[in-house]
Amino acid sequence: MLNIVIFGAPGSGKGTQSAMIVERFGVNHISTGDVLRNEIKNGTELGKVAKGYIDQGQLLPDALIIDILASVLDGLKDSKGVIFDGFPRTIPQAEALKKMLAERGQQVSAMLDLDVPEAELIDRLIKRGQDAGRADDNLETIKKRLVVYNEQTSPLKDYYKTEGLYNHINGVGALDDIFNEIAAVISKL
Ligand code: ADP
């Protein structure tokens, strides 16, 4: 089974490229951001808790998001593979994912690091805020999210290098060119 971690800063294009991966390779897509936004939309207790963190540009506590991820994963039946988008975002989350997959006789197949310079990330997120109206896509929250990314999430690059699973992907340019680089990595797995 393919278990792909798509990684990158906010605005790096994880969601867009995930959709293209799903179409080409027939895997399931788990986006923790989408899961949480859906809870918020449905007005659940979890949604209320999540909104507090998301609006502040902060991460949810590891224990909470790890539980959520485990239950989403358990809900997948007869899956050809999974693309993990937005998870892991911390070292404890990466360790939890490794353990969760091992318990199911599986492992992460590859980590794809979508690399985009910070100035471009900010431009993209501001534009997404205007087009799609995501409440966390405003300059103040974007800046907080980038600090959180640099401090808590970007150390995962070294984690996955040590695991021998790291793949650098140039995240700037035409969508198809970016996807072709991704598809070349996945095709070799
Ligand atoms: P981004 O565009 O910032 O990558 P996402 O849609 O992936 O946005 O996530 C939106 C927000 O949901 C994050 O800023 C964070 O508050 C919360 N979130 C999503 N995934 C996680 C996670 N793995 N751990 C903690 N919080 C998360």
Question: Care to describe what's here?
Answer:
With 189 residues, the chain is an alpha/beta fold. The protein has one domain: 3-Layer(aba) Sandwich (Rossmann fold). It has helices spanning 14-25, 32-41, 45-55, 62-74, 91-103, 118-132, 139-153, 156-162, 175-187; strands spanning 2-8, 28-31, 81-85, 110-115, 166-170. The chain has a 5-stranded parallel beta sheet, with helices on both faces. It is globular, with a radius of gyration of 16 Å. It starts with a strand and ends with a helix. The structure holds adenosine-5'-diphosphate (ADP). Adenosine-5'-diphosphate is lined by residues 10-11, 32-33, 36, 53-54, 58-60, 65, 86-87, 89, 93, 145.
Features:
Rossmann fold, alpha/beta, binds adenosine-5'-diphosphate, 189 residues, 5-stranded parallel beta sheet, 5 strands, 9 helices, single chain, globular
The CATH homologous superfamily corresponds to P-loop containing nucleotide triphosphate hydrolases
Shape: globular
Structural class by SSE content:
alpha/beta
CATH topology: Rossmann fold
Strand order of the largest sheet: 2-3-1-4-5
Describe the main β-sheet briefly.
5 strands, parallel
Query: Bound compounds, please?
Result: adenosine-5'-diphosphate
Q: Which CATH first-tier class would you pick?
A: Alpha Beta
Uncertain runs are none
Average pLDDT taken over every residue: 97
Order of helices and strands: EHEHHHEHEHHHEH
CA-based gyration radius: 16 Å
Number of helices: 9
Helix content range: 55-70%
N-C termini distance: 10 Å
> What is the CATH-assigned architecture?
3-Layer(aba) Sandwich
Number of strands: 5
Q: How many separate domains make up the residues?
A: 1
Portion in beta strands:
5-15%
